[in-house]
Amino acid sequence: MRDNFAQRNNPPRDQKNRLNDGEPKPLPLGDKCNYLCPYFRCNKRALMIQTKYVKGNPQKIGFCRWVGDTCITGECQYAYCEKRALLPGNKCAFSLSRSNGGEDLEKDLKQDELYEDDKIKEIISKKFGKRDLDLI
Predict the structure, then answer these.
(1) CB 90 within 8 A of CB 75
(2) Which range has the worst mean pLDDT, 10-24, 36-50, 115-129?
(3) Per the record, which residues fall in region Disordered (predicted)?
């Protein structure tokens, strides 16, 4: 009976979520970052994954020990991605590049830059009393 068990060729549990080269694959939720992703990290080292049971079904929940509440993933200022795939607005670069071929990713980044420029102009105009805003 033991021989039949040993002959199965199932991969170990930790290798199920890995790519062909042995590297873990990212786990975004749609286009958003996910705290269960192997590349998601907390700079405060406060992320703790808990298993909670909802109607008898186990669910993994990210818990922030620093705040004492559930993890807000990419919205947190201490969240980062090891692969540098966490984009502004809690978006994951891995999901955007797979779904749109990378074209939409460049467009999103340009829109973010324009938004930041508008923010900078607004701050400068407040500081200097709305003078010479056209020169910027």
Answers:
(1) yes
(2) 10-24
(3) 1-25
Strand partners, 61: 50
How far apart (Å, rounded) are the C-alpha atoms in residues 91 and 79?
Answer: 12
**Each residue's pLDDT tens digit, 69-111:** 999 988 889 999 998 888 888 888 888 766 555 555 556 555 6
- Quick one: DSSP state of residue 24? B
User: What does the DSSP assignment read for 113-132?
Assistant: HHHHHHHHHHHHHHHHTS-S
C-alpha 78 chain-centroid distance: 12
Provide the whole-model pTM. Answer: 0.56
Sequence ranges of the domains in the chain: 2-101, 102-136
Q: Residue 5: helix, strand or coil by DSSP?
A: helix
CB atoms within 10 A of CB 46: 15
> Residue 96: phi, psi to the nearest 5?
-70, -40
